[in-house]
Structure prediction request, 580 residues.
Amino acid sequence: MEPVNRIEAALETAFARIETPSGPPKLAAAMRHAVFGAGQRIRPRLCLAVAMACGDDMPAVTDSAAAAVEVLHCASLVHDDMPCFDNADVRRGKPTVHKVYGEPLAVLTGDALIVLAFQTLARGVAMAPERMGRLVDVVAAAIGAPAGLCAGQAWESEPDVDLAEYHRAKTGVLFAAATEAGGAAAGHADPAAWRILGARLGEGYQVADDLRDVAADPERLGKPRGQDAALGRPNAVAALGVEGAIARLKGLVQEAVESIPQCPGRDALQAHILEETRRFVPKELARQAA
Amino acid sequence: MEPVNRIEAALETAFARIETPSGPPKLAAAMRHAVFGAGQRIRPRLCLAVAMACGDDMPAVTDSAAAAVEVLHCASLVHDDMPCFDNADVRRGKPTVHKVYGEPLAVLTGDALIVLAFQTLARGVAMAPERMGRLVDVVAAAIGAPAGLCAGQAWESEPDVDLAEYHRAKTGVLFAAATEAGGAAAGHADPAAWRILGARLGEGYQVADDLRDVAADPERLGKPRGQDAALGRPNAVAALGVEGAIARLKGLVQEAVESIPQCPGRDALQAHILEETRRFVPKELARQAA
Prediction:
Protein backbone atom coordinates (compact mmCIF):
# COMPACT_ATOMS: atom_id res chain seq x y z
CA MET A 1 0.00 0.00 0.00
CA GLU A 2 1.28 3.51 -0.82
CA PRO A 3 2.31 5.34 2.37
CA VAL A 4 -0.36 7.99 1.91
CA ASN A 5 -3.10 5.36 1.58
CA ARG A 6 -1.71 3.48 4.53
CA ILE A 7 -1.99 6.60 6.68
CA GLU A 8 -5.56 7.32 5.59
CA ALA A 9 -6.44 3.69 6.34
CA ALA A 10 -4.85 3.95 9.78
CA LEU A 11 -6.81 7.13 10.50
CA GLU A 12 -10.04 5.50 9.31
CA THR A 13 -9.34 2.54 11.61
CA ALA A 14 -8.93 4.94 14.52
CA PHE A 15 -12.17 6.74 13.64
CA ALA A 16 -14.17 3.53 13.16
CA ARG A 17 -14.01 3.01 16.91
CA ILE A 18 -15.55 6.36 17.73
CA GLU A 19 -18.06 6.74 14.91
CA THR A 20 -20.80 4.58 16.40
CA PRO A 21 -24.54 5.32 16.25
CA SER A 22 -24.58 5.62 20.06
CA GLY A 23 -22.29 8.67 20.20
CA PRO A 24 -23.16 12.36 19.77
CA PRO A 25 -23.15 12.90 15.96
CA LYS A 26 -21.86 16.49 15.90
CA LEU A 27 -18.79 15.65 17.96
CA ALA A 28 -17.94 12.79 15.58
CA ALA A 29 -18.53 15.03 12.56
CA ALA A 30 -16.38 17.81 14.03
CA MET A 31 -13.57 15.34 14.76
CA ARG A 32 -13.73 14.09 11.16
CA HIS A 33 -13.80 17.70 9.88
CA ALA A 34 -10.59 18.36 11.85
CA VAL A 35 -8.67 15.32 10.64
CA PHE A 36 -9.79 14.50 7.09
CA GLY A 37 -9.47 16.73 4.05
CA ALA A 38 -6.60 18.71 2.68
CA GLY A 39 -3.92 17.86 5.27
CA GLN A 40 -0.56 16.92 3.78
CA ARG A 41 0.11 14.23 6.41
CA ILE A 42 3.74 15.32 6.55
CA ARG A 43 4.30 14.15 10.13
CA PRO A 44 2.78 10.66 9.80
CA ARG A 45 4.54 10.18 6.42
CA LEU A 46 7.79 10.93 8.18
CA CYS A 47 6.96 8.51 11.00
CA LEU A 48 6.15 5.80 8.45
CA ALA A 49 9.27 6.48 6.39
CA VAL A 50 11.50 6.10 9.46
CA ALA A 51 9.75 2.89 10.56
CA MET A 52 10.13 1.45 7.05
CA ALA A 53 13.82 2.35 6.98
CA CYS A 54 14.13 0.41 10.26
CA GLY A 55 12.42 -2.69 8.83
CA ASP A 56 8.80 -2.01 9.86
CA ASP A 57 8.55 -5.43 11.52
CA MET A 58 5.16 -4.67 13.12
CA PRO A 59 3.14 -2.61 10.66
CA ALA A 60 0.14 -2.30 13.01
CA VAL A 61 2.35 -0.62 15.59
CA THR A 62 3.77 1.75 12.96
CA ASP A 63 0.28 2.59 11.70
CA SER A 64 -0.97 3.41 15.18
CA ALA A 65 2.06 5.62 15.88
CA ALA A 66 1.66 7.50 12.59
CA ALA A 67 -2.08 7.97 13.14
CA ALA A 68 -1.53 9.15 16.72
CA VAL A 69 0.98 11.79 15.62
CA GLU A 70 -1.39 13.14 12.94
CA VAL A 71 -4.42 13.14 15.24
CA LEU A 72 -2.48 15.11 17.86
CA HIS A 73 -1.36 17.59 15.22
CA CYS A 74 -4.98 18.10 14.15
CA ALA A 75 -6.12 18.43 17.78
CA SER A 76 -3.60 21.22 18.32
CA LEU A 77 -4.83 23.03 15.19
CA VAL A 78 -8.45 22.94 16.38
CA HIS A 79 -7.59 24.58 19.69
CA ASP A 80 -5.02 26.98 18.18
CA ASP A 81 -7.62 28.25 15.70
CA MET A 82 -10.09 29.19 18.47
CA PRO A 83 -11.00 32.82 19.17
CA CYS A 84 -8.93 32.99 22.36
CA PHE A 85 -5.80 32.04 20.33
CA ASP A 86 -5.44 32.74 16.59
CA ASN A 87 -9.15 33.37 15.94
CA ALA A 88 -8.77 31.77 12.49
CA ASP A 89 -11.78 31.37 10.22
CA VAL A 90 -10.16 29.16 7.60
CA ARG A 91 -7.80 26.17 7.77
CA ARG A 92 -6.70 23.92 4.92
CA GLY A 93 -9.20 25.73 2.68
CA LYS A 94 -12.17 24.89 4.92
CA PRO A 95 -13.89 26.86 7.69
CA THR A 96 -12.32 26.04 11.07
CA VAL A 97 -14.07 23.71 13.53
CA HIS A 98 -15.36 26.46 15.83
CA LYS A 99 -16.75 28.38 12.83
CA VAL A 100 -18.79 25.36 11.77
CA TYR A 101 -19.63 23.72 15.10
CA GLY A 102 -19.23 26.49 17.69
CA GLU A 103 -16.73 26.98 20.49
CA PRO A 104 -17.99 24.33 22.92
CA LEU A 105 -17.66 21.59 20.30
CA ALA A 106 -14.26 22.95 19.24
CA VAL A 107 -12.96 22.54 22.81
CA LEU A 108 -14.44 19.03 23.02
CA THR A 109 -13.16 18.06 19.57
CA GLY A 110 -9.59 18.93 20.51
CA ASP A 111 -9.92 17.08 23.81
CA ALA A 112 -11.46 13.98 22.25
CA LEU A 113 -8.80 13.93 19.52
CA ILE A 114 -6.02 13.98 22.12
CA VAL A 115 -7.70 11.04 23.83
CA LEU A 116 -8.19 9.26 20.49
CA ALA A 117 -4.46 9.53 19.79
CA PHE A 118 -3.60 7.64 22.96
CA GLN A 119 -6.43 5.16 22.41
CA THR A 120 -5.11 4.48 18.91
CA LEU A 121 -1.62 3.93 20.23
CA ALA A 122 -2.85 1.60 22.96
CA ARG A 123 -4.84 -0.57 20.58
CA GLY A 124 -2.19 -0.65 17.86
CA VAL A 125 0.53 -1.62 20.29
CA ALA A 126 -1.54 -4.30 22.06
CA MET A 127 0.51 -6.98 20.27
CA ALA A 128 3.83 -5.43 21.31
CA PRO A 129 3.30 -4.07 24.83
CA GLU A 130 7.05 -3.66 25.36
CA ARG A 131 7.05 -0.88 22.75
CA MET A 132 4.09 0.97 24.20
CA GLY A 133 5.64 2.78 27.15
CA ARG A 134 8.21 4.48 24.95
CA LEU A 135 5.66 5.37 22.28
CA VAL A 136 3.16 6.89 24.72
CA ASP A 137 5.97 8.78 26.36
CA VAL A 138 7.37 10.19 23.11
CA VAL A 139 3.97 11.27 21.85
CA ALA A 140 2.86 12.70 25.20
CA ALA A 141 6.05 14.72 25.62
CA ALA A 142 5.48 16.28 22.20
CA ILE A 143 2.09 17.69 23.10
CA GLY A 144 2.00 18.28 26.87
CA ALA A 145 3.97 20.21 29.50
CA PRO A 146 6.74 21.20 30.01
CA ALA A 147 8.05 21.17 26.42
CA GLY A 148 5.32 20.03 24.00
CA LEU A 149 2.85 21.92 21.85
CA CYS A 150 0.73 23.05 24.82
CA ALA A 151 3.80 24.43 26.51
CA GLY A 152 4.86 26.17 23.30
CA GLN A 153 1.49 27.87 23.09
CA ALA A 154 1.57 28.70 26.82
CA TRP A 155 4.76 30.72 26.38
CA GLU A 156 2.57 33.30 24.63
CA SER A 157 1.02 34.01 28.04
CA GLU A 158 4.41 34.73 29.62
CA PRO A 159 5.99 38.19 29.78
CA ASP A 160 9.54 38.77 28.55
CA VAL A 161 10.23 35.69 26.49
CA ASP A 162 11.80 35.24 23.08
CA LEU A 163 8.68 34.04 21.26
CA ALA A 164 10.64 33.36 18.07
CA GLU A 165 12.37 30.47 19.76
CA TYR A 166 9.15 28.99 21.05
CA HIS A 167 7.42 29.23 17.68
CA ARG A 168 10.29 27.27 16.17
CA ALA A 169 10.15 24.77 19.03
CA LYS A 170 6.42 24.26 18.57
CA THR A 171 6.85 23.00 15.03
CA GLY A 172 10.03 21.07 15.68
CA VAL A 173 8.77 19.12 18.66
CA LEU A 174 6.06 17.16 16.82
CA PHE A 175 8.34 16.46 13.86
CA ALA A 176 10.99 15.13 16.26
CA ALA A 177 8.34 13.00 17.97
CA ALA A 178 7.23 11.67 14.57
CA THR A 179 10.72 10.42 13.72
CA GLU A 180 11.43 9.07 17.23
CA ALA A 181 8.04 7.32 17.24
CA GLY A 182 8.84 5.79 13.84
CA GLY A 183 12.04 4.34 15.26
CA ALA A 184 10.33 3.17 18.46
CA ALA A 185 7.43 1.60 16.53
CA ALA A 186 9.87 -0.46 14.47
CA GLY A 187 11.89 -1.54 17.49
CA HIS A 188 15.04 0.50 16.67
CA ALA A 189 17.62 0.11 19.43
CA ASP A 190 17.99 3.88 20.00
CA PRO A 191 14.82 5.72 18.92
CA ALA A 192 16.05 9.03 20.38
CA ALA A 193 18.83 9.07 17.76
CA TRP A 194 16.07 9.76 15.22
CA ARG A 195 15.03 13.06 16.80
CA ILE A 196 17.56 15.26 14.99
CA LEU A 197 16.09 14.25 11.63
CA GLY A 198 12.63 15.37 12.74
CA ALA A 199 13.83 18.51 14.47
CA ARG A 200 15.75 19.76 11.42
CA LEU A 201 12.89 18.92 9.07
CA GLY A 202 10.45 20.66 11.40
CA GLU A 203 12.61 23.74 11.37
CA GLY A 204 12.86 23.50 7.58
CA TYR A 205 9.11 23.14 7.32
CA GLN A 206 8.70 26.30 9.38
CA VAL A 207 11.03 28.22 7.04
CA ALA A 208 9.06 26.84 4.09
CA ASP A 209 5.85 27.94 5.79
CA ASP A 210 7.28 31.44 6.11
CA LEU A 211 8.12 31.35 2.38
CA ARG A 212 4.57 30.23 1.57
CA ASP A 213 3.16 32.96 3.78
CA VAL A 214 4.76 35.64 1.61
CA ALA A 215 4.84 33.92 -1.78
CA ALA A 216 2.12 31.34 -2.32
CA ASP A 217 -1.23 31.70 -4.04
CA PRO A 218 -3.77 32.21 -1.17
CA GLU A 219 -6.13 29.67 -2.73
CA ARG A 220 -3.51 26.91 -2.60
CA LEU A 221 -2.38 28.14 0.81
CA GLY A 222 -5.86 27.47 2.22
CA LYS A 223 -5.68 30.55 4.45
CA PRO A 224 -5.07 34.28 3.99
CA ARG A 225 -1.55 35.34 2.98
CA GLY A 226 0.70 37.60 5.05
CA GLN A 227 -0.68 36.46 8.44
CA ASP A 228 2.71 36.32 10.14
CA ALA A 229 3.29 40.02 9.55
CA ALA A 230 -0.32 40.82 10.54
CA LEU A 231 0.03 38.88 13.81
CA GLY A 232 3.53 40.22 14.49
CA ARG A 233 5.05 36.74 14.30
CA PRO A 234 8.71 35.99 13.62
CA ASN A 235 9.31 35.06 10.00
CA ALA A 236 12.45 33.70 8.34
CA VAL A 237 11.76 35.67 5.13
CA ALA A 238 11.57 38.93 7.04
CA ALA A 239 14.86 38.07 8.76
CA LEU A 240 16.80 36.56 5.86
CA GLY A 241 15.02 37.61 2.65
CA VAL A 242 13.60 35.11 0.18
CA GLU A 243 16.97 33.85 -1.08
CA GLY A 244 18.41 33.68 2.40
CA ALA A 245 15.41 31.70 3.62
CA ILE A 246 15.71 29.26 0.71
CA ALA A 247 19.40 28.76 1.51
CA ARG A 248 18.55 28.18 5.17
CA LEU A 249 15.93 25.60 4.18
CA LYS A 250 18.43 23.73 2.01
CA GLY A 251 20.98 23.73 4.83
CA LEU A 252 18.45 22.29 7.28
CA VAL A 253 17.43 19.53 4.86
CA GLN A 254 21.09 18.66 4.37
CA GLU A 255 21.67 18.44 8.13
CA ALA A 256 18.52 16.32 8.43
CA VAL A 257 19.63 13.86 5.79
CA GLU A 258 23.13 13.53 7.27
CA SER A 259 21.73 12.89 10.76
CA ILE A 260 19.91 9.69 9.75
CA PRO A 261 21.17 6.86 11.99
CA GLN A 262 22.47 3.58 10.61
CA CYS A 263 19.59 1.33 9.58
CA PRO A 264 18.76 -1.12 6.78
CA GLY A 265 17.02 1.50 4.62
CA ARG A 266 19.29 4.51 5.19
CA ASP A 267 20.07 5.28 1.51
CA ALA A 268 16.45 4.98 0.40
CA LEU A 269 15.30 7.17 3.29
CA GLN A 270 17.84 9.87 2.41
CA ALA A 271 16.57 9.92 -1.18
CA HIS A 272 12.97 9.96 0.06
CA ILE A 273 13.59 12.93 2.36
CA LEU A 274 15.26 14.94 -0.41
CA GLU A 275 12.31 14.20 -2.69
CA GLU A 276 9.67 15.06 -0.06
CA THR A 277 11.28 18.29 1.02
CA ARG A 278 11.23 19.58 -2.55
CA ARG A 279 7.48 19.98 -2.01
CA PHE A 280 8.12 22.25 0.98
CA VAL A 281 8.97 25.14 -1.34
CA PRO A 282 5.96 26.93 -2.83
CA LYS A 283 5.60 26.42 -6.60
CA GLU A 284 6.03 30.16 -7.13
CA LEU A 285 9.61 29.91 -5.78
CA ALA A 286 10.54 26.44 -7.04
CA ARG A 287 12.76 27.79 -9.84
CA GLN A 288 14.75 29.93 -7.41
CA ALA A 289 15.20 26.93 -5.11
CA ALA A 290 16.29 24.45 -7.81
CA MET B 1 0.63 4.94 53.78
CA GLU B 2 -2.96 6.16 54.22
CA PRO B 3 -4.82 6.00 50.88
CA VAL B 4 -5.33 9.76 50.80
CA ASN B 5 -1.60 10.39 51.31
CA ARG B 6 -0.74 7.77 48.73
CA ILE B 7 -2.91 9.57 46.16
CA GLU B 8 -1.37 12.96 46.91
CA ALA B 9 2.07 11.39 46.61
CA ALA B 10 1.14 9.81 43.26
CA LEU B 11 -0.13 13.15 41.98
CA GLU B 12 3.04 14.90 43.17
CA THR B 13 5.11 12.27 41.35
CA ALA B 14 3.16 12.97 38.17
CA PHE B 15 3.67 16.72 38.56
CA ALA B 16 7.37 16.44 39.36
CA ARG B 17 7.92 15.48 35.71
CA ILE B 18 6.30 18.60 34.34
CA GLU B 19 7.34 21.18 36.92
CA THR B 20 10.81 21.87 35.56
CA PRO B 21 12.48 25.28 35.34
CA SER B 22 12.53 24.98 31.53
CA GLY B 23 8.73 24.95 31.13
CA PRO B 24 6.34 27.93 30.98
CA PRO B 25 5.65 28.77 34.65
CA LYS B 26 2.01 29.91 34.32
CA LEU B 27 0.95 26.68 32.61
CA ALA B 28 2.54 24.64 35.39
CA ALA B 29 0.91 26.86 38.04
CA ALA B 30 -2.50 26.61 36.35
CA MET B 31 -2.20 22.82 36.17
CA ARG B 32 -1.37 22.70 39.88
CA HIS B 33 -4.26 25.08 40.65
CA ALA B 34 -6.60 22.68 38.83
CA VAL B 35 -5.46 19.51 40.58
CA PHE B 36 -4.38 20.39 44.13
CA GLY B 37 -6.56 21.90 46.83
CA ALA B 38 -9.96 20.99 48.10
CA GLY B 39 -10.74 17.98 45.86
CA GLN B 40 -12.15 14.99 47.71
CA ARG B 41 -10.24 12.51 45.51
CA ILE B 42 -13.31 10.25 45.47
CA ARG B 43 -12.48 8.60 42.13
CA PRO B 44 -8.82 7.77 42.85
CA ARG B 45 -9.73 6.56 46.37
CA LEU B 46 -12.18 4.20 44.74
CA CYS B 47 -9.56 3.03 42.24
CA LEU B 48 -7.13 2.41 45.08
CA ALA B 49 -9.70 0.63 47.23
CA VAL B 50 -10.53 -1.78 44.40
CA ALA B 51 -6.86 -2.48 43.64
CA MET B 52 -6.20 -3.15 47.33
CA ALA B 53 -9.15 -5.53 47.52
CA CYS B 54 -7.58 -7.38 44.56
CA GLY B 55 -4.19 -7.67 46.30
CA ASP B 56 -2.45 -4.55 44.94
CA ASP B 57 0.51 -6.63 43.76
CA MET B 58 2.07 -3.73 41.84
CA PRO B 59 1.54 -0.55 43.86
CA ALA B 60 3.27 1.71 41.29
CA VAL B 61 0.77 0.59 38.66
CA THR B 62 -2.14 1.25 41.02
CA ASP B 63 -0.77 4.67 41.91
CA SER B 64 -0.42 5.68 38.27
CA ALA B 65 -3.96 4.51 37.47
CA ALA B 66 -5.43 6.40 40.44
CA ALA B 67 -3.48 9.55 39.58
CA ALA B 68 -4.50 9.33 35.91
CA VAL B 69 -8.19 9.09 36.81
CA GLU B 70 -8.00 12.13 39.10
CA VAL B 71 -6.00 14.20 36.63
CA LEU B 72 -8.55 13.49 33.90
CA HIS B 73 -11.37 14.45 36.24
CA CYS B 74 -9.65 17.76 36.99
CA ALA B 75 -8.98 18.36 33.27
CA SER B 76 -12.67 17.97 32.52
CA LEU B 77 -13.57 20.44 35.28
CA VAL B 78 -11.21 23.09 33.88
CA HIS B 79 -12.81 22.94 30.45
CA ASP B 80 -16.38 22.55 31.76
CA ASP B 81 -15.97 25.70 33.85
CA MET B 82 -15.02 27.83 30.83
CA PRO B 83 -17.29 30.62 29.58
CA CYS B 84 -18.47 28.63 26.53
CA PHE B 85 -19.75 25.88 28.89
CA ASP B 86 -20.77 26.54 32.51
CA ASN B 87 -19.05 29.92 32.81
CA ALA B 88 -18.26 29.13 36.46
CA ASP B 89 -16.28 31.59 38.56
CA VAL B 90 -15.70 29.34 41.57
CA ARG B 91 -14.75 25.67 41.95
CA ARG B 92 -13.83 23.85 45.16
CA GLY B 93 -13.89 27.20 46.96
CA LYS B 94 -11.28 28.77 44.66
CA PRO B 95 -11.59 30.92 41.54
CA THR B 96 -11.67 28.73 38.43
CA VAL B 97 -8.61 28.36 36.19
CA HIS B 98 -9.83 30.71 33.45
CA LYS B 99 -10.71 33.38 36.07
CA VAL B 100 -7.15 33.33 37.39
CA TYR B 101 -5.11 32.56 34.26
CA GLY B 102 -7.38 33.54 31.35
CA GLU B 103 -9.09 31.46 28.69
CA PRO B 104 -6.06 30.55 26.57
CA LEU B 105 -4.27 29.02 29.55
CA ALA B 106 -7.49 27.28 30.65
CA VAL B 107 -7.71 25.52 27.28
CA LEU B 108 -4.02 24.56 27.44
CA THR B 109 -4.27 23.45 31.08
CA GLY B 110 -7.08 21.01 30.26
CA ASP B 111 -5.17 19.72 27.24
CA ALA B 112 -1.89 19.31 29.10
CA LEU B 113 -3.66 17.55 31.99
CA ILE B 114 -5.22 15.01 29.60
CA VAL B 115 -1.76 14.35 28.21
CA LEU B 116 -0.28 14.15 31.73
CA ALA B 117 -2.81 11.46 32.63
CA PHE B 118 -1.63 9.20 29.82
CA GLN B 119 2.00 10.03 30.51
CA THR B 120 1.51 9.08 34.15
CA LEU B 121 -0.11 5.79 33.17
CA ALA B 122 2.67 4.99 30.71
CA ARG B 123 5.43 5.62 33.23
CA GLY B 124 3.70 3.85 36.11
CA VAL B 125 2.99 0.78 34.02
CA ALA B 126 6.48 0.58 32.51
CA MET B 127 7.25 -2.39 34.80
CA ALA B 128 4.08 -4.25 33.77
CA PRO B 129 3.55 -3.50 30.07
CA GLU B 130 0.99 -6.28 29.73
CA ARG B 131 -1.39 -4.28 31.93
CA MET B 132 -0.95 -1.02 30.05
CA GLY B 133 -3.13 -1.58 26.97
CA ARG B 134 -6.17 -2.28 29.09
CA LEU B 135 -5.51 0.63 31.43
CA VAL B 136 -5.03 3.18 28.64
CA ASP B 137 -8.13 1.86 26.94
CA VAL B 138 -10.31 2.05 30.06
CA VAL B 139 -9.18 5.54 30.94
CA ALA B 140 -9.41 6.82 27.33
CA ALA B 141 -12.92 5.45 26.87
CA ALA B 142 -14.04 7.30 29.99
CA ILE B 143 -13.03 10.69 28.67
CA GLY B 144 -13.19 10.59 24.85
CA ALA B 145 -15.73 9.84 22.14
CA PRO B 146 -18.17 8.17 21.69
CA ALA B 147 -19.17 7.61 25.33
CA GLY B 148 -16.78 9.40 27.68
CA LEU B 149 -16.92 12.79 29.39
CA CYS B 150 -16.32 14.74 26.14
CA ALA B 151 -19.18 12.90 24.49
CA GLY B 152 -21.44 13.53 27.49
CA GLN B 153 -20.71 17.24 27.24
CA ALA B 154 -21.17 17.17 23.45
CA TRP B 155 -24.74 15.92 23.82
CA GLU B 156 -25.56 19.43 25.04
CA SER B 157 -24.95 20.62 21.46
CA GLU B 158 -27.47 18.15 20.03
CA PRO B 159 -31.16 18.94 19.52
CA ASP B 160 -33.89 16.65 20.91
CA VAL B 161 -31.99 14.55 23.40
CA ASP B 162 -32.82 13.53 26.96
CA LEU B 163 -30.09 15.51 28.69
CA ALA B 164 -30.96 14.02 32.07
CA GLU B 165 -29.66 10.65 30.93
CA TYR B 166 -26.41 12.13 29.62
CA HIS B 167 -25.78 14.12 32.77
CA ARG B 168 -26.07 10.89 34.76
CA ALA B 169 -23.84 9.10 32.27
CA LYS B 170 -21.17 11.81 32.52
CA THR B 171 -20.70 11.21 36.23
CA GLY B 172 -21.06 7.45 36.06
CA VAL B 173 -18.53 6.87 33.32
CA LEU B 174 -15.48 8.09 35.22
CA PHE B 175 -16.49 6.28 38.41
CA ALA B 176 -16.89 3.06 36.37
CA ALA B 177 -13.47 3.66 34.81
CA ALA B 178 -11.98 4.21 38.29
CA THR B 179 -13.17 0.82 39.54
CA GLU B 180 -12.29 -1.02 36.31
CA ALA B 181 -8.85 0.61 36.30
CA GLY B 182 -8.36 -0.47 39.93
CA GLY B 183 -9.07 -4.07 38.94
CA ALA B 184 -6.87 -3.85 35.84
CA ALA B 185 -4.01 -2.22 37.76
CA ALA B 186 -4.00 -5.10 40.25
CA GLY B 187 -4.18 -7.77 37.54
CA HIS B 188 -7.75 -8.93 38.28
CA ALA B 189 -8.84 -11.59 35.77
CA ASP B 190 -11.98 -9.70 34.72
CA PRO B 191 -11.59 -5.94 35.32
CA ALA B 192 -14.85 -5.15 33.50
CA ALA B 193 -16.75 -6.94 36.26
CA TRP B 194 -15.80 -4.01 38.51
CA ARG B 195 -17.65 -1.45 36.41
CA ILE B 196 -21.06 -1.87 38.07
CA LEU B 197 -19.60 -0.86 41.43
CA GLY B 198 -18.32 2.39 39.94
CA ALA B 199 -21.41 3.07 37.87
CA ARG B 200 -23.77 2.72 40.85
CA LEU B 201 -21.54 4.82 43.08
CA GLY B 202 -21.28 7.46 40.37
CA GLU B 203 -25.04 7.60 40.12
CA GLY B 204 -25.26 7.78 43.91
CA TYR B 205 -22.70 10.56 43.98
CA GLN B 206 -24.80 12.50 41.47
CA VAL B 207 -27.91 12.12 43.67
CA ALA B 208 -25.82 13.25 46.66
CA ASP B 209 -24.62 16.22 44.61
CA ASP B 210 -28.23 17.13 43.92
CA LEU B 211 -28.93 16.93 47.66
CA ARG B 212 -25.93 19.15 48.38
CA ASP B 213 -27.07 21.61 45.74
CA VAL B 214 -30.31 22.28 47.64
CA ALA B 215 -29.23 21.63 51.22
CA ALA B 216 -25.58 22.30 51.92
CA ASP B 217 -23.93 25.40 53.33
CA PRO B 218 -22.60 27.30 50.26
CA GLU B 219 -19.28 27.88 52.00
CA ARG B 220 -18.65 24.17 52.44
CA LEU B 221 -20.08 23.51 48.97
CA GLY B 222 -17.34 25.69 47.44
CA LYS B 223 -19.72 27.07 44.82
CA PRO B 224 -23.08 28.89 44.80
CA ARG B 225 -26.15 26.86 45.89
CA GLY B 226 -29.16 26.16 43.68
CA GLN B 227 -27.18 26.13 40.41
CA ASP B 228 -29.03 23.13 38.96
CA ALA B 229 -32.34 24.97 39.07
CA ALA B 230 -30.72 28.16 37.76
CA LEU B 231 -29.18 26.29 34.81
CA GLY B 232 -32.32 24.20 34.19
CA ARG B 233 -30.49 20.97 34.95
CA PRO B 234 -32.16 17.73 35.95
CA ASN B 235 -32.06 17.18 39.71
CA ALA B 236 -33.00 14.10 41.75
CA VAL B 237 -34.34 16.25 44.59
CA ALA B 238 -36.68 18.11 42.24
CA ALA B 239 -37.87 14.76 40.87
CA LEU B 240 -38.09 12.70 44.08
CA GLY B 241 -38.07 15.17 46.98
CA VAL B 242 -35.37 15.13 49.68
CA GLU B 243 -36.53 11.89 51.33
CA GLY B 244 -37.02 10.18 47.97
CA ALA B 245 -33.55 11.21 46.86
CA ILE B 246 -32.02 9.91 50.10
CA ALA B 247 -33.82 6.58 49.62
CA ARG B 248 -32.57 6.39 46.04
CA LEU B 249 -29.01 7.07 47.19
CA LYS B 250 -29.22 4.27 49.78
CA GLY B 251 -30.58 1.87 47.13
CA LEU B 252 -27.72 2.68 44.76
CA VAL B 253 -25.08 2.16 47.47
CA GLN B 254 -26.66 -1.20 48.33
CA GLU B 255 -26.56 -2.29 44.68
CA ALA B 256 -22.95 -1.11 44.45
CA VAL B 257 -21.88 -3.09 47.49
CA GLU B 258 -23.63 -6.25 46.31
CA SER B 259 -22.03 -6.02 42.85
CA ILE B 260 -18.47 -6.34 44.17
CA PRO B 261 -16.82 -9.32 42.44
CA GLN B 262 -15.13 -12.11 44.35
CA CYS B 263 -11.66 -11.04 45.49
CA PRO B 264 -9.42 -11.45 48.53
CA GLY B 265 -10.59 -8.23 50.19
CA ARG B 266 -14.32 -8.30 49.36
CA ASP B 267 -15.66 -7.93 52.93
CA ALA B 268 -13.30 -5.13 53.82
CA LEU B 269 -14.12 -3.31 50.61
CA GLN B 270 -17.86 -3.56 51.26
CA ALA B 271 -17.38 -2.05 54.70
CA HIS B 272 -15.14 0.64 53.25
CA ILE B 273 -17.71 1.62 50.59
CA LEU B 274 -20.49 1.88 53.18
CA GLU B 275 -18.28 4.06 55.32
CA GLU B 276 -17.16 6.31 52.44
CA THR B 277 -20.63 6.82 51.02
CA ARG B 278 -21.88 8.09 54.36
CA ARG B 279 -19.87 11.22 53.54
CA PHE B 280 -21.83 11.68 50.31
CA VAL B 281 -24.81 13.05 52.24
CA PRO B 282 -24.49 16.69 53.28
CA LYS B 283 -24.14 17.22 57.04
CA GLU B 284 -27.38 19.17 57.07
CA LEU B 285 -29.27 16.00 56.04
CA ALA B 286 -27.20 13.37 57.83
CA ARG B 287 -29.81 12.80 60.57
CA GLN B 288 -32.52 12.14 57.99
CA ALA B 289 -30.25 9.70 56.16
CA ALA B 290 -29.15 7.72 59.25
Remarks:
- The mean pLDDT of chain B is 90.
- Chain B touches chain A through 58 residues (CB under 8 Å).
- Chain B has one domain: 3-289.
